[in-house]
């Protein structure tokens, strides 16, 4: 499973957006059915930012669905066709 850990760059909005865009493009092209983005647990602010980013219309075209991992609240799963 492809994975993106946002812990090292959580303070930089530009770095977060760039990392997520590059990761999603790579994941969509990889053929993997699912990838994970790890914003961590913390206050939940970074996870909300990740979900908002994923919900943008032009980003939604890259994947089928996304959901917070039911077994790990510090992880978001992104599913591809």
Structural summary, described in words:
It is built from 3 helices and 4 strands, in the order E-H-E-H-H-E-E. With 81 residues, it is of the alpha+beta class. It has a single domain, classed as 2-Layer Sandwich (Ribosomal Protein S8, Chain: A, domain 1), CATH 3.30.1370.110. The chain has a 4-stranded mixed beta sheet, with helices on one face. Strand 1, helix 1 (13-30) and strand 2 (34-38) form a beta-alpha-beta unit. The radius of gyration is 12 Å and the shape is globular. The two termini are 14 Å apart. The model has no long low-confidence stretch (mean pLDDT 95).
How would you describe this structure in keywords?
about 80 residues; alpha+beta; Ribosomal Protein S8, Chain: A, domain 1
Summarize the entry for a quick read.
The chain is of the alpha+beta class and 81 residues long. The protein has helices at 13-30, 45-54, 57-60, and strands spanning 2-5, 34-38, 65-68, 76-79. The radius of gyration is 12 Å and the shape is globular.
